[in-house]
Amino acid sequence: MRLRLQKYIAQSGICSRRAAEILIAQGKVLINQSKVAQIGDSIDPNIDSVSLEGQTLRPRLKQYFVFHKPAKVLCSKKDPAGLPCLYQILPPALQHVFYAGRLDFMSEGLLILTNDGAFSHQLTHPSFGIQKHYRVWLKSILNIESFLNTIIKDGIVDNGELLKAKSARKISSVKGGDLIEIVLCEGKNREIRRMIKAHDGKVIRLKRITMGPFSLNDLKVGKWRSFNQKELNFVKQIADNGRI
What we know:
It is built from seven helices and 17 strands. It is an alpha+beta fold. The chain has three domains: 3-56, Structural Genomics Hypothetical 15.5 Kd Protein In mrcA-pckA Intergenic Region, Chain A, CATH 3.10.290; 64-127 and 213-241, Pseudouridine synthase I, catalytic domain, N-terminal subdomain (Alpha-Beta Plaits), CATH 3.30.70.580; 131-211, Pseudouridine synthase (2-Layer Sandwich), CATH 3.30.2350.10. The strands form four sheets. Strands 7, 8, 9, 10, 13, 14, 15, 16 and 17 form a nine-stranded mixed β-sheet that branches. Strands 3-2-5-6 form a four-stranded antiparallel β-sheet, with no helix packed on it. Helix 1 packs across helix 2 (17-25). It is elongated, with a radius of gyration of 20 Å.
């Protein structure tokens, strides 16, 4: 069975499918040690070899983890400014995996870690419609119900980009503001913070609690766990069907 080259590279666990496409476009990937790969190439894993900058790539045992990211940690291996980074706090057993669905520096909550590039793509690409639930503590929005209706029905245009929630609701009033839940199906950069800022609000705390069937439950901040059987079944389902 032939596989798209970028899918094979992602299955080797070194990067996501999109990152693999960039490596191919940069001419860093060889097929059978001689042919410079191009976007659109496919291979037969039983016959062909694939190498990246001299290193032969092979599919590896796929691993999947749920991690509870703390606030004030950057989703990166290192930061020129010296900010605390994700891979500085991950244990040695998780240094080889990458995150699926970035959380910004101040945000906390559920982060999926995996070496399965194809699954990472399916989990985060908008075309798959994976819902992400966020809890947001905010203040300074005078009419919270009007804000929630706007981001659901019409959305907010910010810098020429439409920002829109799948659903949103107020959970409770808290000291000095409100606690709300927002559900997104896309992962636009700082989307929730931008929507709230457009209504002159201020985010006090932002926490992702679920992505599709994956949830934090009682997982403590800074801790991780492997996928349970139900979650592994979901991975297999979208791998087999290409859809949820």
